[in-house]
Amino acid sequence: MYLVTAEEMRRIDRYAIETIGIPAMALMENAGRAVADEVEKRQAKTAAPGGRPPRWLVLAGKGNNGGDGLVCARHLADRGYEVRIVYAVPPDTLTGEAALQRDIALRIGLAQEAYSPGAIDWERWDGIVDALLGTGTSGAPREPMASLIREANGSKRPIVAIDVPSGLDSDTGAVAEPCIRASVTVALALPKIGLLAYPGADAAGEVVVRAIGIPEAAVRSENVRTFVLAKASLRDRFDVTLPLARKANSHKGTYGHALIVAGSRGMSGAGLLCTRAALRAGCGLVTWAVPEAMAASLTGSVPEAMLFGAADAGLGEWRGTSAGEVAAKAAGKQAVVAGPGLGRWPGDTQWLHKLWHGVDAPLVLDADALNMVAEAIASGEFAVWGPRKAETIVTPHPGEMARLCGESVAEIERDRLGAARGLAARYGLHVVLKGARTVVASPNGTAWVNTTGNAGMATGGAGDVLAGIVGSLLAQGFEAEKAAAVGVYWHGAAGDLAAAGRSSIGSLLAGDIVEAL
Ligand SMILES: NC(=O)C1=CN([C@@H]2O[C@H](COP(=O)(O)OP(=O)(O)OC[C@H]3O[C@@H](n4cnc5c(N)ncnc54)[C@H](O)[C@@H]3O)[C@@H](O)[C@H]2O)[C@H](O)CC1
Ligand SMILES: [K+]
C-alpha cells in the first residue's frame, strides 16, 4: 500500500480531475459518503438513548476537507440523523466545491451555525465529524479554529476525522497544538504518511482507508516511493510469506552462513541474542566471533553456532589487531553482522574501516559499529572510505541516528522518514531507523514504514535480535532492501506474538522475540 505526502496526493487528485476528467464534485461526493458510512458503522455499535435519532456535529473548514464534511452531513441527515454544521469560519468565505456544498446544505435546510467560542452544548451530541483541515493545512490551526479544536477534544465525544485529524502534519506525523484527537480517521484514497508516523498515529486513532473513485492510472502518474510495510506488501512486493518456505530437498548450505561479530566482556548477551535470532530466522550456519578470552565461558551457550575467538590479549575486549582475522573469517560467508555489544576501543574506527573493505559479503552494522561510523562521518574520514563490494545495512535507533546525522534526537524524530531517506541517499546505505513505526529506506529512494511491533519491545537486546534476523535473511540470499524490510516486519510480528502471550507487555524479554520467530 502506498503512503503519500500531501503534495503527492494533490498531484494525484489533480491528475484525476484535470487529465482524466473526473469532476471534483464527484470525488467530494464519494469522500463525504464514505465518511458517513464510517459514522454509521460506529454509531450502530452504540444505539442512541431511547431510540432517538443519533445526533452528530460536523465541524467544517473552508477548503475541500470542509466540503467533504458538508457532503457527509447531507448523507447523515438522509439516513435519519440529527445533524448540525458548525462553520469554523464565516460560511461566505468558503471557496470552490466547498462553497457549492455550502449552498446545497443551505437549500436542503441543514441546521448550521458559525462557530462562536463557548456556544456549543457538546453534551447534546453523540459524535463529531472533523472536517476542519485536510491536506491543505499550513502550520498550526489558527484562531478561532484552534479554540474549536480544543473544545471538541475536551467534549470527550467520539471524533471521526476526515482524511487527517485537523492540526496534523500529513507529511511527518508532527502534531500541532491543538490537534484533533480522533477515534477514527477516514483516509481518503490513500493513507498519508503522518497517519502512521508518531505522534500523528496517536492523534489519528484507528485509520480506515476508503476509495473515492480516483483511478489507479492517476496514482501511477505519480512516482510514489513510500510504502506501508504490512503482510500484503511482503507478499506483493517481495514474494514472501511468513513463516519462510523451505524446499523439501535442501541442506544447511542452501540457507547460507552468517558471521556475527558481536559481544565483549560484560556484553556477551548482545552477541548471544543476535546469534540465536540469526539461527531462528533460518540461516543454515552461524559463526559467532567474540574476543578470545570469552570463548571458553560461552562454549555450549548456543550449541548450534560455531564460536570463533579473535585475538584479544586475554582481556575479553576487542582490539584493532583482530580486523584481519575477522575479515578472513568472513570469507565464504553470505552475510556479516557487526556491532551488538562490541564496546569501543582506541582505533576502533580503523578496525571497522578494515572490515568495510575486507568483507566481501553484505554487511549489517548495528550499535557500537554505528557509533564508529558516526565518528568517521564527523571527522570527514567516512567520505573517503568509498563504496563497499556488497550492500550495507545500518540499523540505528534514534540516538545512533542522531549521531550519524549530526543532529539532535528531537530533529530525527520530527521527520523520521526524511532522516532515514536522507542518510540512505547520502551514503548509499540501506537504513533501518528503529523505534515505533520503524522506517526502512534504501539508496534508490524507496522507503517502508512498518506496522508491526509494540512498546513491550522497547527492551534491552531487542535491537540485537533484529540485527541477527536481518543478517540471517541476507545469508539466505535476500537482497538488502528485502532483508531489511522483511526482517523489520518479522521482528515486530514476533514481538506482537510474544506480547499476546503475556498479561503485561512490560515483561517482554528480547529472548521471547527470538522464541516467537
Ligand atoms: N484525496 C483526494 O483526492 C480528495 C480530497 N479531498 C479533500 O480535500 C482536502 C484538501 O483540501 P484543500 O482545499 O486543499 O485544503 P484543506 O481543506 O485542508 O484546507 C485548506 C483551507 O484551510 C485554510 N488553512 C490552512 N491551514 C490553516 C491553519 N493552520 N489554520 C486555519 N486555516 C488554515 C486555508 O486557508 C485553506 O483555505 C483533503 O484533505 C480531502 O479531505 C476532496 O474533497 C476530494 C478529493
Ligand atoms: K480533518
TrEMBL record:
Residues 235-517 form the YjeF C-terminal domain. The keyword ATP-binding applies. The keyword Kinase does not apply. (6S)-NADPHX binds at residues 64-68, 134-140, 163, 270, 341, 397, 464. Its EC number is 4.2.1.136, 5.1.99.6. Keywords: ATP-binding, Isomerase, Lyase, Metal-binding, Multifunctional enzyme, NAD, NADP, Nucleotide-binding, Potassium. AMP binds at K434, G435, A436, R437, T438, G463. PROSITE patterns: YJEF_C_2, YJEF_C_3, YJEF_N. Residues 9-220 form the YjeF N-terminal domain. Signal peptide: none annotated. Binds 1 potassium ion per subunit. Its cofactor is K(+); Mg(2+). It catalyses: (6R)-NADPHX = (6S)-NADPHX; (6S)-NADHX + ADP = AMP + phosphate + NADH + H(+); (6S)-NADPHX + ADP = AMP + phosphate + NADPH + H(+); (6R)-NADHX = (6S)-NADHX. InterPro entries: Carbohydrate_kinase_pred_CS, CARKD, Nnr, Ribokinase-like, YjeF_N_dom, YjeF_N_dom_sf. Transmembrane segments: none annotated. K(+) binds at N65, D130, S166. Catalyzes the dehydration of the S-form of NAD(P)HX at the expense of ADP, which is converted to AMP. Together with NAD(P)HX epimerase, which catalyzes the epimerization of the S- and R-forms, the enzyme allows the repair of both epimers of NAD(P)HX, a damaged form of NAD(P)H that is a result of enzymatic or heat-dependent hydration. Homotetramer. In the N-terminal section; belongs to the NnrE/AIBP family. This is Bifunctional NAD(P)H-hydrate repair enzyme. It comes from Cohnella cellulosilytica.
